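In this notation, each integer encodes one residue's backbone shape. One such record reads:

___
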Amino acid sequence: LKPIKKKELELALLKLKEFRQIFTTPDTDTTPNNNTSPVEYKKRFMIRFGEHIKTLAVENISYCVSENKNTYAKSFDGLTYPMDYNLDTLEQMLDPQHFFRINRQFLISLKAIKEMKVYSKSRVIVKLDPPVKDPPIVSSERAADFKLWLAGDLHN
């Protein structure tokens, strides 16, 4: 609908891309010249602070966290940035070689992991850098994939 809002259009296109990946198999794909070109992941984000604009490079993101229906990126230098996307969308935008969604609240960078400890059964507590007041716990549903990701064996 007019007027077109850039943010809403970007989110709609990301959603379309997600649905195509979910519902398209190699046998049913009718797209001509179906190249298996590498997926382009986000390299930086535009961050708005009122009237000010800043860019945040993906390699500077330690983790993304969802709190009180808002999403924030924490940089390695300890700064917190408001994000325009939720964790589900960010998970699709960031390279799965470097970022993993450990639970409903955290999407973490491999470089941010400072220490890990066994919590219970297959669950793991992850200490991050910069630190979080309550270190996040890998959900039991994601624990097996998390361990594969750590070993470099998870293929998304």
Strands lie at 44-49, 52-57, 61-67, 70-75, 80-82, 99-101, 106-109, 113-120, 123-128. The chain has three helices and nine strands. The radius of gyration is 17 Å.
